[in-house]
Amino acid sequence: MRQLHILIAAALLAPPALAQEATEDAVATGGNALVGLIVTLIIGAIVGWLASVIMKGGGSGLVMDIILGIGGALVAGWLFPLIGVSFGAGLIPSIIAAVIGAIILILVVRLLRGAAR
């Protein structure tokens, strides 16, 4: 959304050469966003698959693994700083935290399913 505001402002206020440059930057950034989304989905699938294997011995299917992986990363990003736990910076510590978050998510879902029966 911010990129759209910048693009509109550049088109309205800047000379044509600068507006063209802003448009090219927005297009290039959009391509990076797509790559970022694809990487997020792939890492989410790997994290979810790892958590599923740890918890029950097999994957949960591609879509569910992606949901578990991304959800686990969100749980880890919210819960661990709240309780003062840090795994460090970088890709590997983030993946470890996301796997633990996905395992917590699996445990919560199992508890809720058990309570609903």
UniProtKB/TrEMBL annotation:
Keywords for the protein's UniProt record, in alphabetical order: Cell membrane, Membrane, Signal, Transmembrane, Transmembrane helix
Database matches in InterPro entries: Transgly_assoc
Transmembrane segments: 35-55, 62-85, 91-112
Top-level lineage group: Bacteria
Protein localization: Cell membrane
Record's keyword annotation contains Acyltransferase: no
Organism: Alloyangia pacifica
Pfam families, per database record: Transgly_assoc
Name assigned to this protein: Uncharacterized membrane protein YeaQ/YmgE, transglycosylase-associated protein family
Signal peptide residues on this chain, from the entry's feature table: 1-19
Any one of the GO CC terms: plasma membrane
